């Protein structure tokens, strides 16, 4: 299928990630759920790409396959030219990190924040002293608005959902991946701090050429933060294009419906521009 708003590949720039004909089917032959249905897309180095769609459209399943947490039923995922199924976990996860929708499932309640963050250094090649590591941990916590002095030796169950989500972001920052897959990364963070944290992620993307696959229901947040949007419906990608192209001239009825839920999007942005 030719997507109306599809972006053509800039000459000479190689894709960081290529998803080719990816399919995930759950269940048995009699009762199968096609969660992801033959999707293909690519992400360039330093690009922020949003994956949007209603609940159940297959976004998290796509993310889990990219992170190698779930095996594709069909299709391939290529990272820096290599099929990810051939790479070692540690080599892959040093370069591709994640922030989950549900931060509760990501922690072992046995470890303190300090040891949770400390494990991130196993994925990095630097040889830092204990005090240098602690200083880096404190720095990354402060950068996501966590009070390191108060929280560094707490256990995850003593933290709020929003604090845990910030901690996941702090950990990803310590590792400094080339691709960050962020599945509803701020769903548990109050609306007033959400934009600040997302802006911080986008700044990092620009400074370090880190690509971000940002998964969200919120087309407004996606529009403000992303270079391109991918619209997913019932396991398929129905539209792809630059954020402006998709929002200004959506080609598919499904995208129009998603946009209809946020009638003030363009207006709010224009007003913000005028204020700036
Ligand atoms: N482990 C699983 N076993 C069976 N079905 C699954 C499994 N994981 C996901 N599904 C199904 O696959 C479909 C896509 O789910 P997925 O979690 O990818 O959606 P999503 O777009 O992330 O939704 P949300 O916005 O609610 O997070 C749904 O129908 C879901 O019920
Ligand atoms: Mg999901």
Write up this protein.
By secondary structure, this protein is α/β, with parallel strands linked by helices. It has a single domain (17-275), classed as 3-Layer(aba) Sandwich (Rossmann fold). 38% of the residues lie in helices and 23% in strands. It is built from eleven helices and ten strands. The chain has helices at 59-66, 89-95, 113-118, 130-143, 148-151, 161-175, 191-208, 219-225, 243-248, 253-260, 265-275; strands spanning 17-27, 32-43, 48-52, 74-79, 82-83, 96-99, 179-183, 211-216, 228-233, 236-242. It has a six-stranded mixed beta sheet, sandwiched between helices. Helix 4 (130-143) packs across helix 6. The longest helix has 18 residues, at 191-208. The chain is globular. Mean pLDDT is 87; it is low at 1-6. It binds adenosine-5'-triphosphate and magnesium ion.
DSSP, total strands: 10
Q: Calculate the mean pLDDT score and round it.
A: 87
N-to-C terminal Cα separation, in Å? Answer: 40 Å
Strand order of the largest sheet: 6-7-8-3-9-10
- Under CATH, the homologous superfamily reads P-loop containing nucleotide triphosphate hydrolases
CATH topology: Rossmann fold
Which structural class do you get from the secondary structure elements? alpha/beta
């Amino acid at each position: 299928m030719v997507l109306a708003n599809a972006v053509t590949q800039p000459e000479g720039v190689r894709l960081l990630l290529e998803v080719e004909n990816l399919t995930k089917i759950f269940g048995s032959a009699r009762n199968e759920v096609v969660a992801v249905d033959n999707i293909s897309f690519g992400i360039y180095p330093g690009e922020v790409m949003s994956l949007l769609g209603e609940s159940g459209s297959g976004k998290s399943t796509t993310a889990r396959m990219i992170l190698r947490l779930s095996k594709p039923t069909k299709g391939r995922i290529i990272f820096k030219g290599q099929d990810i199924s051939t790479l070692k976990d540690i080599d892959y996860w040093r370069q591709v990190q994640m922030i989950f929708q549900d931060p509760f499932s990501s922690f072992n309640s046995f470890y303190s924040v300090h040891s949770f963050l400390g494990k991130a250094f196993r994925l990095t090649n630097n040889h830092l002293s204990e005090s240098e590591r602690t200083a880096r941990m404190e720095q990354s916590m402060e950068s996501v608005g966590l009070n390191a002095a108060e929280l560094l030796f707490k256990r995850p169950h003593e933290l709020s959902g929003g604090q845990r989500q910030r901690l996941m972001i702090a950990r990803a920052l310590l590792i400094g991946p080339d691709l960050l897959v962020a599945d509803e990364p701020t769903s548990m963070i109050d609306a007033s701090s959400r934009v600040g944290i997302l802006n911080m992620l986008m700044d990092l993307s620009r400074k370090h050429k880190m690509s971000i696959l940002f998964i969200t229901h919120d087309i407004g947040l996606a529009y403000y933060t992303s270079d391109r949007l991918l619209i997913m419906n019932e396991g398929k990608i129905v539209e792809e294009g630059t954020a402006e192209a998709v929002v200004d001239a959506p080609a598919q009825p499904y995208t129009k419906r998603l946009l209809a839920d946020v009638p003030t999007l363009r207006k709010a942005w224009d007003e913000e521009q005028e204020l700036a």
